[in-house]
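Problem 3 from the worked examples.
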Amino acid sequence: QITFGKISTGALSDLERITKMAYSIVTVYGMNEKIGNVSYYDSKVGGDYKFTKPYSESTAKTIDEEVRALIDSVYERTLKLLTDKKKELGILAEQLLEKEILFQSDLEKLIGKRPFAEDTTYEAFTKNGKMSVADAEKKDENKVTDSNEEEALTGNSEKTDSGTSSDEKKD
């Protein structure tokens, strides 16, 4: 669209994936205000994105409208982002034609670091990180140990995986 002024045939797989993803957001994961927190997914049918149709034609129409609205809003947002960053897009496209694969370090050299802080521990798993994988795992273990010690000292128990506290199990 940005380069040729129209959507090319190369976008077919992208359109297929975004359509499946949008339908999943609306009908499987319950992440839509109009449809609500409901899932029409039937795990007994099997396979990816298979679901039964236990809803009316009116609901089907609403689902289609919500999927279309979601795809349209994401398309507009993406189009704006790529238009705003057309220079960077060109730089990346040239490098991809040359190298085929770009890594994060390549991206940082070409277009700079991300303009926001990362919420991941990615740096802990890279050679340039400040923390090794072993250190990251030890830090996580310390959090669990500290939590268990606090529970023992205060007598407060947290919920277990089953959703009941250890105090509730005693009753």
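Problem 4, a separate protein:
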Amino acid sequence: MAWPCAGFGTAGSIDLSAGIDVQDRPKDAWANYAVTSPPVVAGDVLVVGSSIGDNRGHALEQGVVRGYDARSGRELWRWDPVPRAPAAA
């Protein structure tokens, strides 16, 4: 199968679960992590949000917003809307 954007990510796609920190279960058990809406392209950046179910434990994946290079699929940045360090609040 030929992908329309073979140079994007890996064979035309990116793994949105890559890099998610899952500390209390196997790496393939993503629990309640989900991308709940389509990404948006802002300039040359593909912006992807996520949703998590955070009522099951304390060491869970974080619902970060990520930015990817729209041409290559390379992750450019992550933004966590919830301050994790007391000094960041």
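Solution to problem 4. The first strand starts at residue 40 and ends at 42. Residues 27 and 59 are 13 Å apart (CA to CA).
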